Amino acid sequence: MSTSRPKKRSYHHGDLEAALIRSAGNILEKEGLEALSLRETARRAGVSHNAPYRHFAEREALLAALAREGFERLGAAQREAADKGGLRAMGEAYVLFALEHPQRFRLMFGGQISIARHEKLRDVATKTFAGLSGALAARVPEAQGARDASIAAWALVHGLALLLMGDRIASAAMNGRERKAFVRDVLASVRFAAGAA
Amino acid sequence: MSTSRPKKRSYHHGDLEAALIRSAGNILEKEGLEALSLRETARRAGVSHNAPYRHFAEREALLAALAREGFERLGAAQREAADKGGLRAMGEAYVLFALEHPQRFRLMFGGQISIARHEKLRDVATKTFAGLSGALAARVPEAQGARDASIAAWALVHGLALLLMGDRIASAAMNGRERKAFVRDVLASVRFAAGAA
DNA sequence: ATCTAATGTTGACATCGTAAACATAACTCT
DNA sequence: AGAGTTATGTTTACGATGTCAACATTAGAT
């Protein structure tokens, strides 16, 4: 667990930016977004409370970096699932990612950070979604219907993830199934139709 | 615009709790959740910064009251839609509610408040969802399949609402349609199957 | 009318985000 | 190698916030 830092640093840290993102990521996942303050992050990285400002213009910029990391990981998980199990696996992977990293997922989609305002974040996020809807649209060879269906599919997994995360689904509904099986069954209860009136 | 208050109150306000909820609601919808502080709420209600503590144990309790109001309104909108246009209308109403009250919706589902910890909130929320899934389950006369499908339907509208709110849907995908029409088409691109493998 | 509980107010404290001024190390150019 | 410049940390300071404790005022019950 000990990240072996090669040299003992005095004034200049060496790679503060990465260290800050790491500290912040830990706080986020273990204590939640509310507990994630710039000052605490600095404390854990062993620097003064204002050092982060050399690397992040404001608190939101740090959050944006964490969100970006999240989109990258989600994208990777999606690609991996696409290879192994196709579309259905991608949907399941989406939901499982959210359930395994709820705080991260909330940061990514909770609307606390303005995605549009952070360039790199925006690019990565866009790319991730393009992969998702591209995979779906490729299966339904009709222009608008396919696009609508791919958005419906995305909305479905996205909504299911959030409802599960928020404990909004009564345990009775799970009916004894494991979460993974439950997700599979729910997703399987849906059919996408290209041109529906 | 002037809420005509009958009497000029000196020390005791008369109905501070309601006034606070009103002020807070205004801040929430106009300036967003981040701008919603206890102190600002008190200021707008014309009382000292600590007066709210006589009515709300903590900030989160005020937020919970706002969320509860939201669930009540969502539930009402759902019931109304159910009468007029059946299931499909309920789905559309759900999404439209979210788009018309994005900040409120975020508060209700953003995970900032622990729903379970606030009794009244929990009850109202549960009741609202029971109405939703009940309406759906009634249409598919098979136990588990129906339940899964009803959750899928809910997830679908929920996810679509959040994606639209977060501007995560490229305008190209809307293809010139009005938002309402777009929602209708996307929802229409999905079929629910009771027992799917 | 008096006592008590409810409701508001004042003052205080720790924490936070952020800005400005300062300190130190690293890099560049000669 | 030495001087000047830039990047990176630190200190100090300010206003805002949530919350606590002590106090003030009023409404209701006796």
What is the largest interface, and how many residues per chain? A-B, 48 and 48 residues
H/E element string of chain A? HHHHHHHHE
The general outline of chain A is: globular
Radius of gyration of chain A: 20 Å
Average residue pLDDT of chain A: 89
Oligomerization: homodimer
Strand content of chain A: under 5%
Low-confidence stretches of chain A: 1-8
The biggest beta sheet of chain A, please?
none
How would you explain this protein's 3D organization?
Two copies of one chain form a homodimer. Chain A has 197 residues and is mostly helical. The first copy, chain A, is built from eight helices and one strand; from the N terminus they run H-H-H-H-H-H-H-H-E. The first copy, chain A, has helices spanning 16-31, 38-45, 59-100, 102-109, 119-137, 143-165, 171-174, 179-188; one strand at residues 190-192. In chain A, helix 1 packs across helix 3. The longest helix of chain A is centred in the middle third of the chain and has 42 residues, at 59-100. The termini of chain A are far apart. The interface between A and B is large, with 48 and 48 residues. Strand 1 (190-192) of chain A pairs antiparallel with strand 1 (190-192) of chain B, so a sheet runs across the interface. Chain A binds a DNA duplex (30 and 30 nucleotides) through residues 10-13, 16, 37-40, 47-51, 53-55, 58-59.
